[in-house]
Amino acid sequence: MGAENSNWHSELSYDQWAALSVSGLRPSARYKHASAVFDDKLYISGGSRNGRYLSDIQVLDLKTLAWSPLKLKVEKNADNSKDSLAGEILPPTSGHSMFKWGNKLLLLGGHSKNVSDSITVWFIDLESNQCGILETSGKVPLARGGQSVTLVGSRLIMFGGEDRQRRLLNDIHVLDLETMVWDVLETKQTPPAPRFDHTAAVHSERYLLIFCGCSHSIFFNDLHVLDLQTMEWSQPQIQGSTVTSRAGHSGITIDENWYIVGGGDNRSGACETLLLNMSTLVVSVLASVNGRDPLASEGLSVSSVLLDGEKILITFGGYNGTYNNEVYVMRPKPRNSPHPKIFQSPAAAAAAASVTAAYALTKSGKLDLSEAEDSDIKVVEENGSQRDLLSEINAVKEEKVVLEAALEEIKAENSSLKGKIEDTATTYADLSKELQSVQGQLVTERSRCAKLEAQIAELHNMLESLPSLEEEVKLLRNQKSALDRDMELASSVQRQKSGGVWKWIAG
Predict the structure, then answer these.
(1) 80 located within any domain
(2) Which of 103, 160, 220, 392 has the fewest CB atoms within 10 Å, counting from its CB?
(3) Tens of pLDDT along 217-243?
(4) Biggest distance spanned by C-alpha atoms of the chain
(5) 3 state SS of 472
(6) What are phi and psi of 216, to 5 degrees?
(7) Which of 352, 219, 333, 350 is nearest to 279 (CA)?
(8) Quick one: 287 and 369 in the same domain?
């Protein structure tokens, strides 16, 4: 996709990732950076590479597809004692959060060598490029990295993370952006286990969703929901595709749909791009890549931009054995929003129950929808008021269409799962045979090792007795030398005696 085509997004296929051809000097490869979109431009902030924290701001113009660095200015009259670090305006930071607020980008959290015991909120004014610190008050939370930060109206809701002492957190803090006052949210029921490198999203301005993440030893594949009105935690079951454990993934919401990309478990990257409908909590696999693809990376970012009335997903960076600086884009297929089924008030739940009952009557043949549409049937409620059953029937019809579509998706998913199960069974059988063979070889090798160990022990004993043998050999040599001398002396005496006798006889 060339940079010369300003209408490049119209050429994208639905629900498929494509590498974006860009111009200009690309940002250095990195992961655990932060990203945000403002005025058709993608902003990339900080991150980490080879254990070194980064502090630069890079900008990709999504009209011209050209990269350029953003040169920041220190805010006038700013207290430089707070933000000076080796002459840099923004401190090098990794695992932080960044989002748009008005004409500013706000940055907070993350790990940095800049010593701070509490969360600092930085701002970048995108009209003047000035940068500085926003003063906050109230119950300011501990400094941390790998947290999630979600914008709900004019409030920032921060969950979890890992503090400077590597302690894992599962607390909830809220920052009112109009007053810049921090507060702690007290919750009920069982909260998620302490974690970091998770993702969060908000549904209907009321429900905060926390998805996956990790501790120091566990990678999670769970979903937790906090009702921001009742402040109660719950852990609903996810329907649809199996969710593998992951951390370091990234997510972005479009209407009721939550797109989740990348992540991994320190052994392999998550290859599936997931689509989680936040009303029904049904997960489906939108796209898949191979394990070494940049989209199967930890610490990548995903954002969305509105181009010509259409939302486009954009990813950047990540780490999957190598650091990446590629840009990938996806054009999500427009999706109809089903009626909410998971997050309902008690009154809505009672209404849903009556709709379900009406639907059951249609299935049993006791209620004819075609006849009911032309009637004026009224249902008298407990409070004496009446309601039109026809609206309920229409709702049942709509619900039926949604259920039928969901059923088709489930059938397709079941078919896919059956194929995977058959492949897994075949692989398991092959591996079992291979394991038996290896176990037989292992028994033989163990026997051989035992024999070798016995031989080694015997040789070791022989080596230990070698010095005494050498002494005996030396002693025997000395005795042999002495014996040789005695024999030679005896032979010499014998010769002398024999010579004297012959001499006497001759005389």
Answers:
(1) yes
(2) 103
(3) 999 999 999 999 999 999 999 999 999
(4) 173
(5) helix
(6) -75, -15
(7) 352
(8) no
